[in-house]
Amino acid sequence: MPVNRTEAAYMYILTNARRGLMICLSHRKEELSMIEFDRRQFEEYARAVFTTDSPSGCTADAIALIKSYVEQLGYTTHVHNKGTLEVDVPGLDESKTVATSAHVDTLGMMVRSVKSGGTLALTKVGGPICPTLDGEYCTVLTREGRRYSGTILSLAPAVHVYPDAATMTRDADHLEVRLDEEVKSAEDVKALGIDNGDFVFIDPKFTMTGSGFLKSRFIDDKASAVLLLLLLRWCSEKKAAFRHPTRIYFVVYEEVGHGASALARDIDEFVTVDMGCVGLDLAGSEYAVSICAKDSGGPYDYELTNRLIALAKKHELPYTVDIFPFYGSDVGAAWRAGLDCKGALIGSGVCASHGMERTHVKGLEATLKLMYLYLCGEE
Asked: Is 254 annotated in the active site?
């Protein structure tokens, strides 16, 4: 079989990542077409990722799933001691190293104590909107790996019994888990292997509608993780080269504040992909990619943010520039840990964040394309 010289040169550059071998790469990059949003593939990945429980501190199964997908595409991976999955991709120009991330950990709950009547007191993992949890199905995972179904309920769950059923505060102190087991005492519960510190997984209710909406818990930030999988898949199948050496992180512990606090120190630029905010006077939309100018930690890098805005404008992507008033990202975690890099934040607009979330494939597609342009397109 005759050798395809373009393919051979491309593979040689990827393998060796030598800056001097730039003759044929410019022709290769000119031939690249805009990435396409594969809705069927997105839904396939997303259904698996969203339904693999991964609250902060209990993410090994979700990371293993994503690791298997990435390695099937031919990439080399490394799992940090902390649990973050790293994918290192060679680039054509080694003048700088760039990074991107999405976090795989989600909100959740944990057993605070086992009550005398056989229900479970709760403590939050991250910051879920607790009133939205009243009535949600859940699963309790024991330290031995056993799983028990249940329902999160308020302490006054029956309108025919409790005068304050409709008015009782719905916070973590006023919610409990009713197990789907015949338990009437703390001893009955502990006989099942359930104890303090066991994780309580919240049913995400993953749904893709015919009208293009993704509605589910934990779109923040599993949708972005799936977008990075789509990007890696496209680049693998189309042999699209990354412009610079790129570190892609599937982060854990973001929802509790220290997700990207242990990244490689050679990163020059870091664009994290998370959710965009929607509501009040914010410009964010479910149908666009949000480019964040400032969040609770302060402004993002001005030059890098301008570059992302210019890319969105040039390629006519639906986008907004916005302020996220009550928000922190993995760029902020990296900066607080001392990483010396330019930082920026983008993401598809998400309605009802930390509750029953929703976004649209138009916003997801715009986010995917902007990341592709940043990582694989022109400067």
From this structure: yes
